[in-house]
Amino acid sequence: MATASQATNQRPSSGMKLPCTTCAKPIGIVRCEGRLKLFCRTDLNEHRNQLSKQLEEITVEHDLFQQTLNQSTADPRTHVLISRINAWEKESKNKIKQAAEEARCLIENQAIMNTKQIGIWKLQLEQLKENFLSPSSVAIEEAPENFIAKILVKDLETLGKKFEQVAGYPGINEGGLAFQNNTSNNRSLLNSQVRCKGEYSGGIHNIRLKIEQYANGLIFFGVNSKSAPLNVNNLTVASSYGWTAGANNTVYKSGQALINHNDYVSDFQTNDIVELELDCYRRHIHMRNHRSNKQYELQIELEKCPFPWMFHFGFSMSGDRLRIVD
């Protein structure tokens, strides 16, 4: 450990001068308060010159920035961001122009290809015409197989497609294949009811009928449950489902008379073929007028119209006549 006398000897005496920070000569006489350094006169002058030069550079940079700021304020287009946007715009225009030029070239090339293809097609067409007019690779032979379809005889009675049950005046004729209403005219009352023989609880069943005579009264085409009584004008029972030919466009659903239900419009005429289809699986009835191809469908509620089902028809005008054709 240094003694007190040694510490005293290490400190410079009051007569000693500190060295210059730049040249290290012990002749420093001026202290720079900004830098907290000592300089001799020569280096002090150099230090002042450096400070003056730095101040001058700062002044120049200040003036340039002030000029740039003034220009940006006077004309925003000179701003660096605006310049970048302008450059992007120019580059984008060049890309669009290039893409448009390429598209035009593709279209022109496609037109040339189409012209060539048309020429090929024309040549192929000429060859087809020549082969058709004078075929060289076609021969006609008589096939030994029979190609004429056989005539099938169906027993409509076995299929249940015969009129059988009647309410009102009897009008069944031709062995049950035709029914004609023989009661007095009543355009608003179905005064004759008739059902077919068939009873259905499963499968899909259809019947086609021809309207041989029609006086523009009411004719009902539909289905009813076998358990429902067959009485004159009994379509109001809950088991009645179907459509009426007539001006009112009436649809019966669960015995309720609904006008234009599901956009139903009656368009029946004499000689129309009407087809009904009962689908016991899907529980619906479908009707189609073959002439107009209008088709309608009703969903049947089994709890209101229990199995077995029967095709059911009704008439209001005397002389109206239906024939079973299939």
Fold topology:
Elements: H1 4-10, E1 30-32, E2 37-39, H2 41-74, H3 80-133, E3 163-167, E4 172-173, E5 178-180, E6 192-196, E7 204-213, E8 219-225, E9 241-245, E10 250-253, E11 256-259, E12 273-279, E13 284-289, E14 295-299, E15 309-315, E16 321-324
Antiparallel strand pairs: 1-2, 3-6, 4-5, 5-16, 6-15, 7-12, 7-16, 8-9, 8-15, 9-10, 10-11, 12-13, 13-14
What does this structure look like?
This protein is α+β, with helices and mostly antiparallel strands. The chain folds into three domains: about 60 residues, no CATH class; about 45 residues; about 160 residues, Jelly Rolls (Sandwich). It contains three helices and 16 strands. It has a seven-stranded antiparallel β-sheet, with no helix packed on it. It is elongated and about 155 Å long.
Give a quick precis of the structure.
The protein has helices at residues 4-10, 41-74, 80-133; strands at 30-32, 37-39, 163-167, 172-173, 178-180, 192-196, 204-213, 219-225, 241-245, 250-253, 256-259, 273-279, 284-289, 295-299, 309-315, 321-324.
Query: Using DSSP, what is the number of strands?
Result: 16
CATH architecture of the largest domain: Sandwich
Largest sheet, if any?
7 strands, antiparallel
Strand neighbour order, sheet with most strands: 3-6-15-8-9-10-11
What name does the CATH topology of the largest domain carry? Jelly Rolls
- Structural class by helix and strand composition: alpha+beta
Shape category: elongated
CATH superfamily name of the largest domain? SPRY domain
Uncertain runs: 1-14
Helix-strand pattern, N to C?
HEEHHEEEEEEEEEEEEEE
Q: Can you give the mean pLDDT?
A: 81
- Total number of domains: 3
